[in-house]
Design goal:
35% of the residues lie in helices and 19% in strands. By secondary structure, the chain is an alpha/beta fold. It binds D-xylitol-5-phosphate (DX5) and zinc ion. D-xylitol-5-phosphate (DX5) binds next to strand 2, strand 8 and helix 7.
């Protein structure tokens, strides 16, 4: 199995020093930069849109992993792609025509992700798994950084990983919300292979060290096995 990816979430960064925060990620072992777009409807919070993403694209040397917590995301897929998104993730709960929406993302030239809220079972994705590159399992209720990891998510990771193995599908499992050094090992063991981390990275004294430790998490265990 390929090595897992680390995607720091810019939501927890200091926005008065955005360029420095992105540079910190550029100089780190992070794989992607995770961007949370919120519309104040699908989730009870507002963040940023194309304008900021276009600016971040100029600053970031890492691919942009754009998590759309918005209603009717299909209205803006091409726009987000043009703004610089390499991965575009829409919510299952926001897409009545999910199969069409993920095809639209791929047609725009991005990798297609689907996110599930904590209460949404993974079985509901069975009929679209062939069409997606990534499933983002929310381990907090979306809308805010800095929340507590919901441990039930570990079972969802295991269940989804088993389904993917059975069907031999190369889909990444991303886990988003409350991820840090204290639970990353368990999350990876359950079968996730993309760790989104906001507060645990940007609120740390040494964010790059946290990214490095997240990236190398599990290596000792593997060496012993
Ligand atoms: C929550 C966002 C997350 C958030 C994670 O709605 O989707 O990406 O930034 O932040 P932490 O790691 O602080 O839980
Ligand atoms: Zn997110």
């Amino acid at each position: 199995m390929s090595k897992h990816l680390v995607a720091p979430s810019i939501l927890a960064a200091d926005f008065t020093r955005l360029a420095e925060e992105v540079e910190l990620v550029n100089q780190s072992e992070a794989d992607w930069l995770h961007l949370d777009v919120m519309d104040g409807h699908f989730v009870p919070n507002l963040t940023f849109g194309f304008f900021i993403i276009e600016a971040l694209r100029k600053l970031s040397s890492k691919p942009l992993d754009v998590h759309l917590m918005i209603e009717q995301p299909e209205r803006y897929i091409e726009r987000f792609r043009r703004a610089g998104a390499e991965v575009i993730t829409v919510h299952y709960e926001a897409c009545p025509h999910l199969h069409r929406s993920v095809q639209q993302i791929r047609a725009a030239g991005a990798k297609a992700g689907v996110a599930l809220n904590p209460h949404t079972p993974v079985a509901l994705l069975d009929d679209v798994l062939e069409e997606v590159d990534l499933v983002c399992l929310m381990s907090v209720n979306p809308g805010f950084g800095g929340q507590k990891f919901i441990y039930r998510s570990l079972h969802k990771i295991e269940e989804l990983r088993n389904r993917l193995i059975t069907r031999n599908l190369p889909v990444r499992i991303e886990i988003d919300g409350g991820v840090g050094l204290q639970n990353a090992q368990q999350i990876l063991q359950a079968g996730a292979d993309v760790l989104v981390a906001g507060s645990s990275v940007f609120k740390a004294e040494d964010p790059q060290a946290v990214i490095r430790r997240l990236k190398h998490m599990g290596e000792d265990v593997l060496k012993l096995a």
